[in-house]
Amino acid sequence: MAKSNKNKSCRGFAALSPERRRAIASLGGRAAHAKRVAYTFTPEAASASGMKGGRAVQAKGVGHGFTSEDAREAGRKGGLARWKDRTATAMPRPSSRKPGETRGRPVDEGRRAAAVRLRAAGLTLAEIGERLGVTRQAVQQRLARAAGAEE
Predict the structure, then answer these.
(1) How many Å is the Cα radius of gyration of the chain?
(2) Is the N or the C terminus of the chain less surrounded, counting Cβ atoms within 10 Å?
(3) pLDDT at position 32 over 90
(4) 3 state SS of 132
(5) Domain ranges within the chain, ordered by starting residue
């Protein structure tokens, strides 16, 4: 069990055994990988990490006589070994977006123009939101984007 403190009672994760904490934490990691939102190293990222670590160790003077070229080679080998037994389905998916394409909903120029027109007519953000069927905050964001597009 976790250490007990005389002044405080152990609650939450602190009250759990290290094995139970590890089991719960691993569930989160598995869920992230299943949803494909977990960070995964590419061979290039692993190589870059190896090079960064090699430079840090060398700068501290504890690098076991590695040259920067030795550290670079070790990082490259680590990156390649990490992906050696992976299938094509386990590799990160390339982005499906085309160059210049943005995320989210497509811009609704009609609603943006209507919000600008209604605001110019003197309506409040809440009144415009009611007419357009959106929130006051959404109207405010549309007006801000419209002002940015005009500049």
Answers:
(1) 27
(2) C
(3) no
(4) helix
(5) 43-85, 109-150
